[in-house]
Amino acid sequence: MLYALARPLLFALDPETAHQLTLELADAPLRFGLLRVARVSGAPVRAMGLDFPNPVGLAAGLDKNAAHVDSLAKLGFGFLEVGTVTPRPQPGNPRPRLFRLAPAQALINRMGFNNVGLDEFLGNLSRASWRGVLGINIGKNFDTPLERAGDDYALCLERVYAHASYVTINISSPNTQGLRSLQGKEALDALLARLCALRAPLAERHGRRAPLALKVAPDLDATQILQIADAVRRHGIDGVIATNTSVTREGVEGLPHAHEAGGLSGAPIRTRATATLAALAAALKGEAALIGVGGIMSGADAAAKIAAGASLVQLYTGLIYRGPGLVAECAASVRALR
After folding, report:
1. Mean pLDDT, to the nearest integer, of 89-116?
2. How many CB atoms lie within 10 A of CB 117?
3. Contact 27, 71 (CB under 8 A)
């Protein structure tokens, strides 16, 4: 109800300004002890060797710098994913870089992994008191050559490992030049081999094995999906997040801002993202957990992701249009399936 009243005011602002203001407003009552945990009735889930109190999570990108973990945790999510973080701070692409396509319940973003870098990111996490399931999404700096991308991912994995319940390898953002080429067969094989080799000594050092998840694009053909599934299986990757944003413009043709470069999210990519999820489920046959994300605007959309093979779901754009009440709605719809 409160979000429904606030949304017209937020939508009157530049999208990125509204985004930051919303996070700051969420933090304000936390500072005075006035923010209570939302009651969410959802069935517990075990996936990737972890226990989730409910299957509805926050997707990476909303809290890029892990600066709002405690307030976001109060919204009733079963897990949070923060980042994408890169080794060094970077400003991202020039503004404006986030656009609403309200008639289609969509966003286009070309943020470009804007973040404070590992040192400040980990400092923010050290001040958070929440101890739920936390995913940390890692990427490469924009100016790191692709042939050295593995260095950035390896450094991020080593630095975030102690803080993460699981770590997501983001190779599917369309807003860092060339990044999606890391989804190719040879590049992906080399990257996963390096990170999985690093994970063994990290697990021994920290006394636990943190699962690895791979975040993929919705714009994959059947051959690419099979190649990714094969790499996930061979390297023992624990989960696949399907999907990131899309470079297509299906469903938003002719709308203001539809011509903007960047990744499309929200309702228009629902079908494409769910089809990719279902294809991965068919290829993997339960050998890795699947997290469904992309176009979830209602409880029914979340339930459809579970029916397509996901164990968990994540929200981002749906929160912008529907508000925090979407978390409980999705958890209830998924619970009704089980």
Report:
1. 98
2. 15
3. yes
Question: Six-digit token pair at 271?
Answer: 């079908």
**Dist CA 119 CA 122 (whole Å):** 5
Residue partners of 285: CB distance under 8 A and separation at least 6: none
CATH number of residue 314's parent domain: 3.20.20.70
Strands 56-58 and 79-85: parallel
Cis peptide before 256 (omega within 30 of 0): no
Write out the residue range of the structural domain in which residue 152 sits. 2-337
Structure pTM?
0.96
Active-site annotation, residues: 173
Residue 262 tokens, joined: 């960047």
Q: Decide: 146 and 190 in contact? Cβ < 8 Å.
A: no
Q: Give the length of the chain.
A: 338
Summarize the confidence of residues 249-274 as an average pLDDT. 98
Look up residue 209 and give its two tokens.
Answer: 């094995």
Please give the tally of structural domains in the chain: 1
